[in-house]
Amino acid sequence: MIFTFTFEVKPDRDAIIPPFTSKLSRSIFLDFSPTYSKFIEAEEPYKPFRITVLKDGNTPVYSKGNGVVTLTGGKIYNFSVTTTLQKVVEEVVGTTSIDKEIFNAKFHVELVNMEMKEELGLEDSRLYKVFFNTPTLLQPPRPRFKRKENRFILFPYVPSFFYSLSSHWNKFMNEKIVGVTGSKTLYYFREVDYNIHPVTTYYGKTPTRGFIGWVLFELRAKRNSKIRENVRKLLDYANYFGVGKSRSIGFGEVKVLKIE
Asked: How many beta carbons lie within 10 A of that of residue 229, not counting itself?
């Protein structure tokens, strides 16, 4: 079961916050869920959470560069949290609203929606459009180097895309998905159009370079085949947990839609 909470956030005055605004989202959510605090510094590569950046309507709010972000006093922003943990649901439902002072402002925060998702899988289609709404940090499998150095690719290469999705899925879902990271998927799930460009943002003092934009894919696998079913499940899963490194803190947020 996947649970998604949506929160509205209203600052009482103009507020200057860090360039990648999920820092505020995460600080706020700690007041809703003590369980979340146990995962913040955990070294596991995959976590049962995804917390988004702040949004102005549907538009992600973050700085493309090292500049700060200024929120407007009295304006309502929002963010969402996705998790697989039932205990977190109990904690959040038992709180519903808070007032929090941080970044020299007071923020009124309310839980405005909760959704549950049990069955995953986008509706079958020939075409799917994937929107990469926040910087996506997609890594190829890391060789066994002594020095651990991040290497992010600046285009959603299909095997790396599905490797990231299936690895996270297999950590938290009961049903395991295999066979989606090789050359077969590369041939069955093809790019037919795209508008992708690199972007640099900061989380803390370190510049992070990823990509945003969209890609239109064509799914050519046979109807009712296992690979087609698994691709549709993972694309739907991406809508809830994102893709790539640091997805738990708002990087790699995607929206996948079927195209008629």
From this structure: 15
Cα dihedral 64, 68, 69, 70 sign: negative
d(CA 223, CA 25): 41
Q: How many domains is the chain partitioned into structurally?
A: 2
Two tokens at 254?
């995607």
- Is residue 101 helix, strand or coil? strand
Sign of CA dihedral 170, 173, 174, 176: negative
Residues 9-23: tens digit of each pLDDT = 999 999 999 999 999
Structural domain for 99, as ranges:
2-117
Domain annotation covers residue 218 = yes
Task: Tell me: do 111 and 132 sit in the same domain.
Answer: no
Same domain, 97 and 141: no
Q: Where are the alpha helices (DSSP H) in the chain?
A: 22-30, 34-40, 86-93, 158-172, 183-188, 226-241
Task: Report pTM.
Answer: 0.95
Examine the fold and report which residue of 90, 117, 144 is the final residue of a domain before the chain moves on.
117
Specify whether the CB–CB gap between 189 and 231 falls below 8 A: yes
